[in-house]
Amino acid sequence: MLQPLPKETVFEARRRLRRRKALLVVFFFLSYFFFFWLLFYGIWVDSGSSKNIAALSAQTAFPLSFLLAAFHFFRARMMKLESLLKEWHAAPPDPKDQYHKRFLNQIEEICAACGLSRLEGVVLPSLGVNAFALEDAGGRQILGVTEGLLAVLKREELTAVLAHEAAHLLTGDARLLTLVMGLTGVFRFLYDLSDRLHWNSSSNPRKRAPILAWVMLVGLIGHGLLKALFLALSRNREWEADTFAVRMTKNPLALAGALEKTYASYGGVRGKTFGLEALFFADPTAGPRVDRGGWWSTHPPTEKRVARLLAWAGEERALVYEKEKEKPLEKAEPKGPASKEAFFVFNQEKWEGPYTLDQLALIGKLSPQDWVCREGESAVHPAAFFPQLAFVWTGRLKEKATQKRCPRCRAPLVERSYEGAPGLHCVFCRGWLLEERALQAVLARREEVFSKEEFEKLRKWRDAQRGTPWTCCDFPDANCPACGERMSKRFHHVTTKVVVDQCRNPSCGRIWLDGGELEAIQILTEAAAGEAPPR
Amino acid sequence: MEFWVIVGVLVFLVLVFILIYNRLVRYRVECENAWSQIDVQLKRRSDLIPNLVETVKGYMKHEQETLVKVMEARQKAMQAQGFADRVKAEGEISQLLSRLMAVWENYPDLKADQNARALQEELVTTENRIAYARGHYNDVSANYNTMIAQFPSNLVASWFAMKPREFFQVEEADRAVPKVQF
Q1: What is the ipTM of this complex?
Q2: Residue B97 contacts residue B56 (beta carbons within 8 Å)
Q3: Residue A397 and residue B54: Cα distance in Å, rounded?
Q4: Which pTM was predicted?
């Protein structure tokens, strides 16, 4: 079905938004200077001066307001990113994690598209779906994403989000916004100060200095108007970044998809975000499917943004999302040689096993002439008869055993990834050794698909759990396979009640999960989250 | 008085000249930088290709011809002389690789191999980087070429023999309409 042409093209939209931004900035600074002039007008009137008060106010207000603006400008430039990143528990991406590696690759793509060279990436350990861009005076530019965003968005959607955030860095409006926020705060500060002084100056209202009431009034109205202009600027910059992302990726549907998913998900991160909402792709203080929109919002309404993007793509909303629903869910990829198949091996005059292919690879004693019998069958053949066993002696299995040993069965652990996160795995007892960060990443991802029966079974098991981690778990205390320090038992979380072992060494902190525990934590976390984010 | 007016006008003209010249030089350097970025990505792809062929040749039994062509195209690109030849050779590699990526899904053993998946991601990102770097190069070249053509910067440009840059254009073969075959 033919769609009507959009009202304006991406290029026209970009030009219009840049003009609007210039007008808003000019109007903001004019208002800022005007309210300062108004403030001093009242002060000079109250002082009883006989000179030309308007001119006097201008002479006093403009230099002072200019100095204050310059102070805030340089303060914005000197903003230390470290404290903010620490507040949000941001960490550099782990190149061994497949999702983080993809994120790093996409940052390089953004650099190639924009001619940037010093773009850094950070990942926040949050299940919320969000992203942000930051810049400091030294030219350090950072693109940040949450684990939830990496897990939920497809490749092209993530590129569109990163392009949107990169636009804020390229146009320099991150610094402009910080300056504008600072100047808006000046009038808020004046209002709060005069309010306190006004009420504390005297219990008799007639004896209170009228100038304080004037400062309060100017502070209140000034703050209100400047805040409205700041929010209009914030919304404008989001629209502008959308046009940039579409120009760069040539794929408006990707950005529309990303907006839909962030709208439907929780966007919060650990740490303080109040007052910093404008820095994020989605408002982190709004809940899922809450679109504040309107004059008092840092972000434009998602519905309108998606509608505009769909108009540029020439697509109808209902059709796009019907096509998405029709796509079959992709099943989890097999993780290596098929591990369900097992063999008995005739060794030293007796039958041993059954061993899976992973276990045979680790044992490494099998040769082509050894007699084997596949589990479930009675026929005995030389190992060479089965092509799937060839890797045991040809070394085709890419995973190598490490020096680290499983704390339960002392078998060598292999490097393997689970849902893209790197870890060490015991192929015999199916245990996992993961960094805490990797576990957070796994909980955000949904590659593994679990059945309703598994959900119900684990929910009943969890509800039946009573007691402490030490009474709930029969395994003895273990030593960390990575650093050798003692591990402590704890519940992973009150919602899962799965007992895990965590290394006591603060610089290690790795977590050991016995066979089945990782899947149990995933299932129970997904159950606690309710409906999973749309794919 | 007239003397100072004339001096003022001359100083102004000199300043304008310097500003225009500096801007042209800045655009030219941006173009050279953008082209070198494309070069970096093309080299990266060229280094990945032998690893790709080695990894997939055991799995992709029916694509041996394509794999041989990829290696030949890579050789041609490394030996290409001149901008046009290089662009053509790299375009051939892009076509062949996109054909390989399209049939990747038909080989489940390949999809299961972790190394192959990592390599696929590297190739996808390299192709994207090349595409974005080309777009960026064309954008900065357009700025440079526009300034060379516009008045009065065209006067400064002709004085210093600054020539327009060629765009990184798609080969005609890539634009050929695909035949329908069922």
Answers
A1: 0.80
A2: no
A3: 16
A4: 0.77
